[in-house]
Protein 1
Amino acid sequence: MTKRRSTTRRTKSSGSAPRRGWALARIWIFYSLLLVVALMGIWTLYLDSVVRSKFEGKKWSLPARVYARPLELYQGQSLTPALFEQELRALGYRFEGNANTPGQVLKKVSAGSNEVVYHIHSRGFDFWDKKEVARKFMLRVNNGSVQGLIDLAGADLPLVRLEPEEIGGFYPADKEDRLLVRLADLPPLLGETLLAVEDKHFLDHHGVSPLAILRAAWVNASSGGVRQGGSTITQQLVKNFYLTNEQSIFRRKIPEAIMAVLLEVHYSKSEILETYINEVFLGQSGSRSINGFALGAQHYFRQPLRELDTHELALLVGLVKGASYYNPWRNPERAKERRNVVLGVMKQEGLIDDAQLKRAQAAPLGIVAEGESRSTTYPAFMDLVKRQLNQDYKENDLRSEGLRIFTTLSPMVQRQAEKSMKFRVEQLEKQFKTKNVQGSMVVTSVGGGEILALLGDRDPRFTGFNRALDAKRPIGSLLKPFVYLTALEIPQKYNLGTIISDAPVSYKSGGKWWAPQNADKKDHGDIPLYKGLAYSYNQSTARLGMTLGLGAVAKTVKRAGYQGDVPELPAMLLGSIDMSPLEVAGMYHTIAAEGVYTPLHAIREVLTADGKPLKRYPLELEQRFSNESTFQLQYAMQRTLREGTGRSAYNQIPSHIDLAGKTGTTNDQRDSWFAGFSGEHLAIVWLGRDDNSATPLSGAGGALQVWTDFMKQLPTRSLEQEPPAGVSFDWVDDKTGKLGAETCEGSVWLPLRDDFRPLESADCDMAGKNPIKNLWQKLLN
C-alpha cells in the first residue's frame, strides 16, 4: 500500500508541472506586454515632447537676407531704356500686353523719336523707413534721362522706389534656405492642386491613411516596383521635419506614423499644411537646399509665388515627388512630363478648364537660366558685406535670426562693371598676345561714399581671392594728385599756373641715388603746375614733392582717408606705396567729393525678421580739404582726360560729359591703374598679374580702357564746372605764371583763388584766337 500511495503522489506531481509552467509563462507574457506598453507609452510621450517642442518653438533657423539698393526713379534721373529694362528683368518683371497685376510692364516706343514710355505695376516692399505699396505708374525716358513720372490720375510723382534685388544670404549650418509664407497668402490654386496630387483625403484622415497605404501596396505589387507612396502630407512633414533618411521600419516608419497622429491631435490642419508648404524640399543650389514653395518660385522663376501662372504652379507641385529626379534644368523633358501630369489632375478635379489645360500644357517650362538662380550673385561684394557685418554681429545671428540687410550695391552699375571688365580684358589679351591678366574694380557714389559695385576678379562669379580688398599693389602715379593737392593747399605759394621745373632731379635715399625719369625720357623745362599732373611728369612731381616735404605729402595722403603707413621716402612721391583698390577708392572719393571725407560703406540698414531696425549706418562727413583747392585739383585732372595721359577716353565718351581722372603705371608695367570720376560716380580699375610679373599694359593702355568702356555706358552726371565762392577763371601765361589775356599766345584758362591771384601781367604776344580758351569756354557755356 505504501508503494501505491507513492506512485499516486508522483503521478499528481508530474501533471501539475505543465500547468505551473504555463501559468508562469502567462505571467511573464503579461508583464512583458505591460513593459512593452509602458515603454511604448514612454516612447510616445517622448515623441510627443519632440513634436510639440519643435512645432511650437522656433521651427527653422532663418538665414540673413541681403538686398541690393532699390532702383529709385525720379524726374531728371540719368537712365537709359536698355539698362532700365535689364534691371526690371533681373527683378522678375514681365513685359506683357498690359500692366494689370503686380510685376507686369507695358512698353511703348514713340514713332519717330527716342522716347520710350513704360506702364509699370510695382509690387511694393517693406523698406527700412516705410512700406512701399504696390502701384501703377507711367515712366517716360528720353535722351538718357527720366522725362516724366506720373500716377494713373496724371499727377506727378516725386519718387518711386522699386523693390530691391536679393543678392545673397548667410545660411544656417544645415544650409537650408526658405522664404516663409502664410497659408492665407498662398495662391488658392496651389493649395488645391497640392492636396489633389499629394493627399486627396488630407482633410478627412488623422495623420495616417490606411486606405492610402493599402492602395499604394496594391499598385506597387501589381507593377513589380515602387510606383506610388502611401504617405499622407502629415507623414511627409514628419519625415522631413523631424526624422532622418533611415529606412528601417523601427527607426523611421513606426515613429513617422506615431508622430503624424500626434501632430494631428495637437494642431489644426491649417497649421500642419502651412508648415509643410514652408518645409518641403524643392531643389538644390550648390550646397544650399531650396525649401518651401515661396523660395521655389524665386529659385526657378525669379517670381513671387503669387505671380506664378498655372503651368508654373504645376511644375512646383510636380517637384514635390522628387526634386532631383524632375530637376527642370537637368531633365527638362522629364520635368515637363511630370508638370503635365499635375495639370491633368488639376483638370480632373475641376480646378482648371479645357482651354486652360491646353494652354498650360503647351507652355514652355519658363524657368530662368540655371546660373541666374544662384543665391550669391556678387561674391566679391558679399565678401565685403560680411566683413563689415562681422564688426557688429555674431556669426550665429547672421545665420539663424532672419535678419534683413540692405546694402548699397547697385545691380545696374555692377552688371555694367562686370561687362566692361570681361570684354576689355579679353580684348587686351588678344591685342597684346598675352594671358593671365587679372583685374579688380571698385565703384562708389560721389558724396555718399556708397559702394555701388565691386569686382575682385576678372570673373565676377569667382569666390576666392578678393583682389579689390586684399591685393595690395604699388599705386604708381595715382599718388601724384595728392602731391599737387598738398601744394594747392598753400594758396599763397601755388596755383595751377605756378611755374615748376621738369628738369632732371636726383636725391639720395637709403644710401643710394634716386633719379626718376619721365615716361617719354624727355625733360620739359619750366611748366605750369597743372601740366605736371595732366601729363604725369615724374621729374616735376618729384621736385615739387621734395620742396613741399615728404612729411607734408604723407599727411595729405592720410587726411584723404588712407589708414596704413606712408613711408616717407622720395619714391613714395611716385607711388611706391602698396594699396588695395578699395583703399585707393577711399582716398579718391575725398577728391571727388570736394575735399569731404566719408568712410566708404556697403551697408545701409539692418532689420530684424519682423522689420525692427537693429543698426543704422549714418553718413559721416568731415571737410578735410578746402573747396577751393579740390576744385582746382579736379580741373587739372579734367585736363588729364582732355589733353594728357587719359585723352584716349574721349575717343569713346561724348565730349560734353566732363570727367576727371588719373592714370597709374608701376615699374615694368606690373600694375595698370586708373582712377576717375564724374559728378555722380567714382571708379577705380586695376589690371595686372597675380605673380607680379611684367605686363604690356600701361595705365592708359590697360585700366583706362576698362574704365572708359564702363563710363561710356553708364548714365551719369558731368562734373560741376561752376567754381566755388572765392574762385574764378582767368587767363594765365604758361611761361611765367603771370596773368595773361585771351589773345595772348600761351595763355591758359585756369581757375584761381580770388585772394591769391598773380599781381603781375605777362608781356603779351598777340597770336590771334587762343584754341585752349575756345575749348574750355565752350565746355563752361
Protein 2
Amino acid sequence: MTTERTDLPPRHTGRRRRRHWASWLGWGMIGLAVLVVVGVALLARDALAARDALTRALDEVPAAEDALRAGDTEAADAALARVQPLTAQARASTDGPLWSLAAHLPVYGQDVRAFSAAAATVDDLAAVVLPSLTQALGAVEGDSLTVTSEGVDLGPLVEAAPAMARAADAFDDIDDRLAAVDPDALHAEIAEPYATLVARTDDLRPVVRTADRITALGPAMLGAEGPRRYLVVALNSAELRAGGGIPGALAVVTTDGGRVTLERQASTGDVPPFAEDVLPLDPGVEALFSDRVARYVQDTPLTPDFPTTARLTAAMWEDVQGEALDGVVATDPVALSYLLEATGPLDVPAGSGSVTLDAGNVVQVLLSDSYAQLEAGPETDAFFAAVAARVLGTFLAGGADPAVARDALVRAASEHRVLVWSAHDQEQERLAGTVLAGDLDTGERAASSVGVFLNDATGGKMSYYLDTDVRLTGSVCTDGGRVDSFRATLTSTAPADAASSLPWYVTGGGISGVEPGDVRTIVVLYPPRGGEVGTVRVGGAPTGALVADVLGRRAASLPVTLGPGQTTEVAFTVTSTSPAPAVPGAAGTIDLWTTPTVSAPGLEVVPVAACG
C-alpha cells in the first residue's frame, strides 16, 4: 500500500516561499518608509521646539553675563532662573534614540550631532557652570578675597569649592561632547552658530578652570589644613637665566589658617655650591645647560622648566638649612613693579639713606642704579632683601588695593613672571598646565609650544641692557608636517662707553672671556615635542649649534655676542609632526615661550597654520 504525498513539489515550494518573502519584503519596505517619515517628522518637530527654546534662552543669556561681569549675583541668578527651563526643554527635545540614530546618517549626521551637542552644552552652561560662577564670584572676583593683617578669610573659598568642582566636571562633559563633532562636515546653517558657541565656551573655559583651581588649591596652600612653608625666590633679570633671571634674594614665607607671615630672608650665599648633583638630571638638560643646574642654586633656572628648577632649589635649601619646603614661588622685578601699582610708592633703606620706589622706577633702581650707587655684594644683597621685605610686608599686611593687586598678579602670571610649584603631588597635578606652573617639559598644553630662551654668559649684569623681540614670521603645512618660522631680534642698549662707565660687577670685567661692555647670551631654541629645529641663521648667515634631546624635544643652543648698540637677528624654523590645536573657524594657535626680560614678557599665543 502506498501513501499519497501531501507536500508540494520542490518547484512549487520555492515559488510559494518567494511570494511569501516578496510579500513581507514589500510590507517591510513600506513599514520602514513609514518609520523614516515618522522619525523625520518627530526630529523636525523636536528640532523646531529646541530651536524655539534656544532662541528664547539666548535672548536672556546676555543679561546673566552682564550681571556676572558687574558682580551682581542676585541679577545673574534671576536671569539664569528664566533661562534654565528653556535650555532644559531644548536639551530634552534633542535627546533620545531617534537623535542618536540620526547622528550616524550620511550627509546630515554631523549637523544632527552638532545641534544636539549645542543644546546639551547650553543647558550645562545655564544649569551648572554659570550658577557655580555666581556662587564663587564673591570669593574669586570680589573684595572678600583680600589680604589683611589677619590673613586671608578662607571661608568663601572653601564654600565655593564644591560648586566650582561641579562646573569643572560639567566642562569635561562639554569638551567630550564638542570633540565628537567634526566642524568641517557641518552645513553653513549649522556651522556658523556652532562655531560661535564653541568660541564662547573657549572664552569661558579658562575662567572656570582657574576658579576651580583657586577654590581647590587656595585653602590648602594657605594653611587651611595646617602650617605651610614656602621659599620665595627673587629672580634678577639683569643676569638672565632661561627661567627668568639668576636667583638673588630669598625669603621664607609661612601660611597657617590663611595668615601669611614673612619669616625671614636669606641670600644665595646661604646655599653654597654642591660637589655633586643634588638630584639626577635629564641627560638632555645636562648636555644643554651643564651640571651646574643641579649644583649651584644660582643656576637652577638655566632650564626653562620651572618644576625642575623648583625641585632642585627645594632640595638644596632642605640640605643646607634643614627645612622641608611645601613649595617654591619665583618672581622678578617687573612683577614687583606691577604690585607697586597696588601698594603705591614705598620708602626703602639704601646704604646710609633711603630711596622711594614706585611702579615706574623700581626696575631701573634694582637692576641698574643700585649697582652704580652701592657696593657690589653684601650691600646690594641687603638692598634687594630690604625692597622685597618692604613690598611683600606691605602686601601681606593688607596695604594694597585688592582689585589692582589681583590684576597685577594675573598680569605677572600671564607673562611667566610669577611661577609656583608645590611639593605636594596632588596639588602639583592641579597646577599642571597653568601659566603659574611653567611646566614646559611635562605640561600637556606645552607639548605643541615653541621656546626661545636666554642664558647670560657675560658673567655680569649686562642683561639689563638686552632688548628682545621674538616673532612668528610664517607658518605653512608640508608633507613632513607644519613648518613655523621665527625671528628673535636681540639688541644691546648699553652705552657706547659701557666698558669704562659701568662698574666691573655689571660688565663682568672680562672674567668670562667677554670684552667689558659686550653682552654675550646663550640662545636656546625649543621645538614642539616630537619636532626639530631647522636651519638657524644669525645675522642672515647659517650657524652651527649644540643639539640635545630634552624630553622629546630636539633643542638647539648657540652663543650670540653684541657690542654696545649692536643688533642681530636669530632666524630659525621648527617642524612639528603633530597639528596645533585648532580653533573652529580660525587658524590653529600655539604658545610661544620666551625668557621674560625687562623689555618683553615670557608667554604669547601665536596663530599658526591649522594642518592635519
Protein 3
Amino acid sequence: MPRFSIIVPSHGVAGRLSQALDSVLGQSFGDLQLIPVCDAPDAPADGGPPCSSAAGNAADVAAGYAGRDSRVTPVHSPPSAGLSGARNAGMRAATGTYVLFLDGDDLLLPGALAALDARLAEIAGADVLYAEHERVPWWEGEPTNPAAPLLAKAPKGAFAPADRPGLTGVQLPAWSAVYRRAFLTEHELTFPDGHFTDLGWGGLVTVAAERIAVLRRPVVRHRLRRQGSRLNLPGPHQHTLLDQVERVLTRAAECELPAERTGPLFDQLFAVVLKTASRPERLPSGHRAFFRRAARLHRRHRPAGHRVPGGSLGVQHRLLAAGAYTAFRALRGANRAAGGAVGRLPRPRMLRTRLRYARALRRPLDDGLAVYCAYWGRGYACNPAAIHAKARELAPHIRSVFLVEAGQEHAVPEGVEYAVIGSRRYWEVLARAKYLVNNANFAEGVVKRPGSVHVQTQHGTPLKTMGVDQSTYPVVAAQSGSFTKLLGRVDRWDFNLSSNRHSTQMWERAFPGSYEHLEYGYPRNDVYYTATAEDVARVRRELGVPEGRTAVLYAPTHRDHHTGFETGLDLEAFCAAAGEDVVVLLRAHYFYDRGRSLGSDRIIDVTGHRSSEDVCLAADALITDYSSIMFDYANLDRPIVVYADDWDVYRETRGVYFDLPAQPPGLVARTPQELAAVFRDGSYAGPRARALRAAFRERFCQFDDGRAAERVVRRVLLGEPPEAVPPVIPLAERVPAPAAATLVRS
C-alpha cells in the first residue's frame, strides 16, 4: 500500500498536464500512486458526440507516463461527470494510506510529499491535514500564500475541530489538504455533483472530521487560469451554489453539531452566497429566485444566538434574513455607483489618428471585409497569404485587404489590395473588418469589437518555448516585454490554428485563452501536396539551382543569446567536403532578412525570397538546427539532418518542449565533420534516416494534407459547421510533391 495516492483530473488542461505529473514523479519521496483522471476516450456517458482531441491528448499523455512508470494508474471519467466525477473516479482507484488532489494545471512543490509525510508521522491519527499553498499568476507576478493567515493560529499538534471552529474546509480548496483514506471510506465521503464541489466537499469533511492538523508550508503551486474561475462566470450554474450550502448545513444539523461549530461554518458559507447575490450579472435570469431561496436557507439554518458580522456584510445578512430583495439591490447599487469603464479608447500614437480610429469604431462592422497580416507586415506570406488566396476562390464576396509595412508594398502580388501599416486606411480597415487574420499579433491598440472574428494562424510548430512559457528563461523574457500585455492580445483570438496535437497542447500552455483550436493544418503547407514536378522545376530555375545538382537547404534558427546572424557553419567547407554535386540554399531566420547576400558559386542565398514554401520545394534535403521549418519540410518526406552543435546551450537559454536529438526527423550531427560525412556517404537519406523521418511525420504532420486553407475558409469565413469541413486525409494516403533530384547517392 503506497503512502500517498495523488489524484489529478485533466479535463481541459491537456497542455499543462505533463508539468503536473512531472511535479509529482519528481518528488524526493517516492512511495506514491499517481492517478491521472482523463476524459473517457470514447462516447461520454450522456450519449453525446465523442470527446474532443484535447481529451485524447490528455489520455495519450497519461498513457505515456503509465508506460514509463508503474506508479502511474490512469483512470477515465466522462466529461459529463465534471470535476466531482473525475475526483470520485480517482478515489475509487486509490490504494494509498492518504489521498491528495492536484488540479491538472497546478504543480506539487519540490519536497512537498516529504514534508507531508514527516508531519503526518508527528501527528498520527489525524483525519485531515490542511496545508498552505502558493497562488500565482504564472505569466507575470509574485506568488501569494492565501491560506497562511487561516492556518497561522492553529495548535501545534493534532486537535479536535471544536478547538478551532473557524478553521473549516469551506475556505480552502480540496487540493490544499491531505485526507486519510480510511476516514473518507468510513464516512462515505465523495465530492458532491454539480458546480462549487470544493465548497460542498470542504464543508462535509469539516462536519465529519474528528482530528485535524496543520502544515505551515506551501505544498501546491496553484496557477491562476487566464480566464479566471469558471465559477465566476454568469449562468444558471450559479444556483447550484445553494445546493452545496444546503447540503452542508443539513449534514451539520443531522450530526447535531453545537452552535459554536455551526456558527463559523454558517458565516463562511453565506459569505460566498452573499458575494454571488451582490453580483446580479452572474445570474442573467433568476436573480430574485436565488435571493429568495438563499433567504429561506438563512432563516432555516441560522444557529441559535448567531451574531451577524459587522459593517456592510452584516447589513447584507440582515436584509437577506428579512427577504428584503429591493433594499438589497439598492445597497448593491450604491456600493458600486462609483465604478465606471474609462479608457476603452484605443491607443494609436497620434491624437488625430486615435480620434479617426475611435470614429471608425462607431461605424457598423463590415461583414464583407477581411484583413490579413503576416510577420508584422513584412509582406504577402505564410498562412495568412494561403488563406487569402483560397478565400478569393471560395468566398469572392468577401473583400480582402493585406497589411504591409511602409517600403514592403513590392512584396504584395499584383491584384492584391493592401494598406500600409500606420496609415489612415490601415486604422480604418482594422476598425471595420469582421475578419482579422494574422500569424503574429495585431498592434496593441487594436480593439476586439463584438461580432468581429480574429484568427491566429501561428507560423510554426513549437520546439522552443513560446508565450508565457518563456517567463522562466531570463534571456528570452527580457526581450519579450510584458506577458500581461501579450495575454491581452491573446484575448482577442477567436480561433487558433494547429498543425498537430503537440502544437495544440503547447499553444494551450503558452497562450492560455478562451479561443477555439482549429486542428486543420497549416494552410501554407498545402502546397507541399498540391505542387507538381513542373512547379518544383520552375522554382529551382528561379532560384538558380544548377540542373542535376543536389540542393541542400540550410535554415538555422534565431539565437536569443546572439546579437546578429551567424551561419554557425562554414558552408564553403561543407560543400567541399560533402561532394561536388551539392549546392546549399542558405535561408537565414527572417529576423535577419536585410537584403544582403552571402551567396557564391556553391551557396545560393535565398533569405530574401518571399516564399519559404518555394525554397522547401526546391530543396532535395534540409539541414537545420532547431528551426520550426523542419516540421513543415517533413511534409515533403525528404531527408532532414539536424545540426545540433550547441543543443545544450540552446536548450538552457531558450527552453524547449521536447528533446529533439532524442526524437529527430533524421540523422543528427554534432560537428561539421559529422555533417559532411553523412552527405558524402549518403546515409542522410539511408534506411535509418527514413525510419526516424517516418516516426517524426507520424507525430508532427497529422493535419497537413493540402486542404487546410479550404477548411479555414469554410469554417471561419463561410460559417460552415465543423462537421461540414473536409476531413483530414490520413498520412498514408497523402502524396507529397516530387523531389527534383535522386536522393540516394551511388
Protein 4
Amino acid sequence: MNRVHQAWQRARRRRWWITALLLVPVALALTAIAARVAGINLGSIVLLATLLVVAGTATWRARRLDRHWLVRQLDTHAIAQDSADLLFADTAALNPLQQRQHARITAALQAAPPDLRAAWPKRWLAVAWCGGMLAAVLAVGWPAPGAPLPALPGRATPAASPAQPPSLQSSRLRIQAPAYTGQALRTQTALDAKVVQGSALDWSLRFSAQPTQAALQLHDGTRIALRRDGEAWVAQWKAAKPTLYRIVTEPALTTPRLYRLDVVPDRPPSVRVIAPDRTLVLATPGQRQWTLQFEASDDFGVAANAELHLTLAQGSGENITFREQRVALAGTGPATQRRFTRTLDLAALGAGPGNDVIAQLQVRDNRTPTAQTAQSTSLILRLPSEEQVLGTDLEGMVKKTLPAYFRSQRQIIIDAEALIKLRRQLPADEFVKRSDAIGVDQRILRLRYGQFLGEESEGGAKPPPTSDSLPTSDTPAAEHDEDHAHDTASARGGHDDHEHGATKADSAPVFGAATDVLSEYGHTHDHAEAATLLDPQTRAILKAALDQMWSSEGELRQGRPERALPFAYKALGFIKQVQQAERIYLARVGPELPPIDENRRMTGDRADLGNRASTITPVDAPDPAIVAVWQQLADTRSTPDLDALSQWLGRHQSRLSDPLSLAAAVEELRLAPDCASCRTTLRAQLWRALQRPLPQLERRSTPDPMAQRYLDALEGTR
C-alpha cells in the first residue's frame, strides 16, 4: 500500500502544477494591465491577489483526486481485477474469499504500481503562456494617457495637444530612525507615516506625466523641493515635529491629497524604587548597612551606568549641614529595563547617630546628541540619636519595674484585644474591672502626652505620696487613678518636677512668700508658651491623638473595649506621625537652598529682592477672530478666513491636544470650499480648540432682615 499511496500523491502534485502553470500567465497579464492603468501600487496588490487565487485553485483541484478517484483509476488497470475497493476495506469484516483477493491485489500493486499521473497538456500550456506574455507586453508598451501618438511615416505631425495634468503613479517612502533607537530601515508605499523624532525621510515619487516642478508643501508654509532623478522625483527631510503635507506640481495634480506625518518624541526615562518600600526609613539601633534597589525603564534603552546622589544631613534645627557625594552604579538586565543595586556602608559615609542619609538615583537614556535624564524620589534613612536610644532603653527598664504605669498606646491596644477574646471566660464584673484598668492606663498615657501641649494635669494639689502609699505590682491601677501625684510621677518615671502642693523636706513654706504661693497654687505647665515648642502642624496632630485617647478612655472605663479599639488605633496612627514629623523636608529643599551671602547679613540691604506682593494673572479671553471664524462656518453663504485660522493655529499649537486634526480640517476645506461636510468637521474641531470661559462668581442675594442684623453684628465685632 505504500507504493500505491506514493503514486496517488504524485498524481496530486502533477494536477497542482498543471493548474498553476495554466493560471500564472493570466495573473501576470492582469498585473501588467493594472500597473499600467493605476500604477505600481495597485499592480502589486493585483499580483498578490491573483497569485493567492492561483494557489487556492490549484490546491482545490489537487484535493479533488480523493479515494474514490483512486479506486476508479485502479479499476481501469487489469492488475486490480475490479477489486480496488478491497484495498481500503477492513480485513476483519471480509470473508475468506475476499481476504484472499485482497492479499493478491496488494501483492500485485506492491510489485508493479501503476502510474496515475496525468499527461502534461503541452498545447494548452503553450497557448496560455504565449497569450499571457502577449497581453503583458501590450499593456506595458501601450502609450500613457495624454502621451502623443507616434507620427506615421510620410505624414505631418499634428499640432501638440495641451499638456495633461500629471497624477501620482507610484510612491516610496524610506524611513531611517536615529541610530540609538535600534530600529532598522523600513520602506513603505504609503505616504502617511508615524516615525520617531529625528528620523531621516526619503521620498521617491513617480508621475504619469512629468511635471516641470514638484515640491512637498507642509501645512505651516514650509516647502520641501523635489528634484528629478531619472523618472523619479526625490526629496529628503528630517522629521522634527508632526506635520501635514501635500504634493504640489506644475501643472497641478489631478487629485491632490493631504498626507499626515506623526512624529513621536522620545520619552525621558522613568525610575521606580524597589527597595526600600517607603521613602522614610527609621534605622534600627546598630544598623550598619542600607540596601537600595532601583528599576529604570525607557522606550529606546537606558544607559548602562547611572549616578547615585548621596546627601548626609547632620545637626538639628537651624544648625543643619549637608555633605554630598556621587557614586557610579552599573545596571543589569535588558537596555529598556535596567536594575541598579547598591548597599551603602553607613560608617564609610560618616553617618552617625541623629543623622539623615538621603539617596537619589539619576539615570539617562541613549538619546543622541543630548541624553535625557530622570531622577528617582528621595529616600531618607533616619538614624536615631543617642538620646533616643537611651530613652528607649530607659523606658524598657522602667516598664520592667512599673509595667502598670508605663503602658504604650500599642500595649493598650494589645491588652484590649486580649480582653475581648476572654469575654466569654470571665464574669461580667471581672470583665468590666479589667476594662476599667486598661482605661486608667489610657488616661495616664493621655496625660503624659498632654504635657507637650501645656495641658493641666487632672486632680487638685496634694502632698507627695509616702512610701506606704506607693502602689505595688499587686495594687490595681484604678485605686490610684485620681491621685495627681501618681499621674505626674508615672508620666516622668516616678519624679514630679513640679511638686504641686508640697515643699521639699529640708525647707518649710514661708507665709506670704510669692515664690511659695506660686509653687503651691500655680502651675507653669498649663501655659502653651511654657511647654515644649512644637510647630503648628505637629501640635494639631498631637491634639488629634489626645482626642482619640479621650474617646478610647471613655469606652474602656465603661466596659466596652471593642468600641474603644477604633479610637485607640487612630491615636496610635497620630502618635507615629508626630514621631516622624521632624526634618522630613530636608530631602526636597535642603540641598537646593541657595548659598547665604554672609556679607549682606544684618545689613538691611534689600537690593535685588523680588516683589512678594501676590498678583492675579487674568485669563486670556478667546481670540475674537477665531470665534468669528467659528460663527462663519455655520453660515454656508459666508467665506471663513482660513488664513487667520492657520496663523492662530501656528501660535497655539502647543496647547492643543491634536493640532494635526484641526490643521487637516482647515486644508480639506481650503481644497474644497463648497464641501458642506468639511465645514461641519472644521467647526467641530475648532469648538474643541476654543478655551471655555471660567464660571463667574454669582452675586449674593439680598439677605432678609434677620440675616442682615446677623451680618451687621459680625461687622461690629471686628
